[in-house]
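Internal ticket #5521
Category: modeling
Description: The requester needs a full-assembly model to guide mutagenesis choices. All entity lines are attached below as received. Residue total reported by intake: 408.
Assigned to: D.W.
Attached entities:
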Amino acid sequence: MDRQGTTYTVIFSFIVTFAFVFLLALTNQATIGKVKLNQETARQSAILSAMGISYSSQADVVAKFKNIKTEQRKGVTLYTTTSNGQTIYAAEFAGGGLWSTIRGVLGVNEDVSRILGLQIISQGETPGLGGRIDEPWFKQQFTDEKIVNGQIQINMHNAGTPDTSHDNGEVDGITGATITSTSVGRIVNDELKTLRSVLGGNS
Amino acid sequence: MSDHKPATVLRENVWTSNPIFMQVLGICSALAVTNLLINTVIMTVGVTLVTGFSSLTVSLIKKWIPRKVRMIIQTLIIAFYVIIVDLVLRAYMPDVSKNLGPYVGLIITNCIIMGRAEAFAQSNAPIISFWDGITSGLGYMGVLLVVAVIRELLGFGTLLGYQIMPASFLPWTIMVMAPSAFFILAFIIWIGKTIQFRQTKGATA
């Protein structure tokens, strides 16, 4: 058969494509369980951290997540549990950053007067700049932060050094990532508004 | 062609015709993934493996590839290996996979891989093609690691996440951003070419 002819080319391309795609499908099938499990534990551990619950391993995450109740209220999925006699809530959020959709979890107390914690599930911001919203020093600023006038302020004047006060409702942004920092502020404040309307807390 | 000796291939790919500073290929990823050393290590290992195995595969089936569709078949083979790398990272190294994000998929667009498949694997035996791919990857890796060490050290004051610089050190934000890689790369090309120029001059004199 003519190796440069059309018939040969079509048949060859078909067979090669089929073989490679078939192998890929097999690999995908072989790893999909593990990938799904990783994603699920990543989501669960984010919810736990946002509620201020610590965990040690993947198995511990699964065990502790069993104590978290999931409920639907006004179309919002809420995760809830009691900690030290207080009912606490967490909800997943999503919003636009500079390049990507930032997804995460926000934990709040019962009357939405304090943020318990913020965790990022996925983001595709500039690595090393906006991507630093996923670094502990940035996220820890939200831990136990008081909500002032119903919102959180992102402070860009003193960006780069974490704001250590947890009663001023202020968080320091990231140097060189103004848009990502302020986007996180906007997304968090939108989510606080939603949570207030769902939980009926006072603003 | 069977005049390619493993040692010659190694020297050419890592030094005399290094893909980054002699052929100026794969610059896009050299800018994007070099601000943290750990990301650079994973990325360059990925590129090295993909280059090696796609060159091997292209060389194995080159006899049967019609000339018309040769490039698209090469792209298919490269994409195949890149997706495998991506799946393995997702399943076994979820944290690294999260850090690298879209860059793993972008290995496909790395010109070095296609360059080696087209320039070497198309006309050489499988084993030496595999070696050619691996050594090209090593040449790429060497330069990127140097860039990454400089960028992470000056941009964050750390290496592999460990604090190296004293606490009073003020990080250079420019080093975190892509333009700094242009400057560093230019210096590396300058130094590399100067040394090579001296060597050839020394050899002819």
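Resolution: model delivered.
Comment from assignee: Chain B touches chain A through 34 residues (CB under 8 Å).
Ticket closed.
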